[in-house]
């Protein structure tokens, strides 16, 4: 089975994506293919703008170090022509361990990226930041001038 | 009151931005670049203080 889906997040900074991936235990590598089921069996809609032939191809990969069973996340230039990247993964059977790291629908990766990106932007503008985490797992960033 | 921008990022990746200490639309200017950096999936929540200021502003404008 194959269920390749777009992790819905706007990636406009690869440096932050690298840091975000590292923070949750993934490594960012330059590789032209990402691991997935390997063929589309037509039981799940293709990500918008993608054909079957596009699946599995990418510019960079996010992978779990030392885990050869787990599927991987492909980092692909946006298909709509805008700058930035989109992330695709095969979430069938929880990506054979990948979901445990990135969270359901990639939520923990999205969280980690948003935290890195917000910090980078605000530190660039000269703000100071205090980072805390609450019991529900929310990351709270307090920026002061 | 010190100007502060609070960003709450949930484990599902949802982002909520709250400001305090800013006057009127000043807070939107302060968070504009941040919202752009984070993409469209954010929500702004004005603090009670900001809502009160806006209500006062509206009342004065009448």
Features:
heterodimer, A: 145 residues, alpha+beta, 5-stranded antiparallel sheet, two-stranded antiparallel sheet, 7 strands, 23% helix, 27% strand, globular, B: 62 residues, 3-stranded mixed sheet, 3 strands
Descriptive report:
The complex is a heterodimer of chains A (145) and B (62). By secondary structure, chain A is of the alpha+beta class. Chain A has helices spanning 14-23, 98-102, 107-124; strands at 4-11, 27-30, 60-63, 73-77, 85-90, 128-133, 139-144. Helices cover 23% and strands 27% of the residues of chain A. In chain A, a hairpin with a 7-residue loop joins strand 4 and strand 5. Chain A is built from 3 helices and 7 strands. The mean pLDDT of chain A is 93. In chain A, helix 1 (14-23) packs across helix 3 (107-124). By secondary structure, chain B is of the alpha+beta class. Chain B has 2 helices and 3 strands. Chain B has helices spanning 26-38, 48-61, and strands spanning 4-9, 15-20, 42-46. Chain B has a 3-stranded mixed beta sheet with strand order 1-2-3. In chain B, a hairpin with a 5-residue loop joins strand 1 and strand 2 (15-20). Chain B starts with a strand and ends with a helix. The chains are: A alpha+beta (145), B alpha+beta (62). Chain A binds chain B through residues 8-10, 12-13, 103-111, 113-115, 117-118, 120-122, 125, 127, 136-145, and chain B through 2-13, 15, 33-34, 37-41.
